[in-house]
Design a protein that fits this description.
185 residues; alpha/beta; six-stranded mixed β-sheet; two-stranded parallel ribbon; 6 helices; 8 strands; 17% strand
């Protein structure tokens, strides 16, 4: 899933900005106020959009991401490294929004290794809702479901319309949903 080169090209994408807002609302609603954000490479539109939506929601509550937005890789290794640095900079951190479930697993490893309880001390939320990753995490991971089945359904409809000579233009976004598990309130 990626943004088309031309602004008018057809695309169906998850509402990544809305996903960031949803996660912020969830964590703020659980009483979290010192929330970090560790995500993938800044060159990815999804990473930038999630960070923007997250930042907008925090700003509306009078907050900023604790320690700023930390862009890196889509990997557990990056999650472990970034969490180590974030904890050193923000020892009173009480939540982390991770740009993927893989990053979240790495963050959780570091949190547990530093003696932090998840979610008691620090809540953790990922993105993808990749069930083997999310359910296999310790504790099971709250994650944003990108609703890929719906994205595929809509993309197939756009393709069929184009084949029928009625191509669509522009980008459609599909709302994401938060799947709450034990890693967050």
């Amino acid at each position: 899933m990626t943004q088309p080169d031309g602004a008018d090209g057809p695309a169906v994408l998850p509402d990544d900005r809305g996903a960031g807002r949803t996660v912020a609302g969830h964590l703020l609603g659980g009483g979290r106020r010192r929330i970090g954000h560790i995500t993938g490479p800044e060159r990815f539109l999804a990473a930038r959009q999630r960070a923007a939506g997250f930042g907008d929601a925090l700003a509306a509550a009078g907050l900023d991401p604790a320690g700023g937005v930390r862009f890196g890789e889509w990997s557990e290794r990056w999650g472990r490294e970034a969490a180590r640095d974030l904890l050193a900079d923000q020892p009173d951190l009480d939540a982390v929004f991770c740009g993927s479930d893989q990053i979240a697993r790495g963050v959780a490893d570091t949190l547990r290794g530093s003696g932090r309880d998840i979610p008691g001390d620090v809540a953790v939320v990922g993105v993808d809702n990749w069930e083997p990753m999310a359910i296999g995490a310790q504790p099971p991971l709250t994650s944003v479901d990108l609703c890929l089945e719906e994205i595929g359904r809509q993309a197939a409809g756009m393709l069929l319309a184009a084949i029928a000579g009625e191509p669509e233009r522009g980008v459609r976004t599909v709302p994401c949903r938060l799947v709450v598990r034990e890693s967050s309130p």
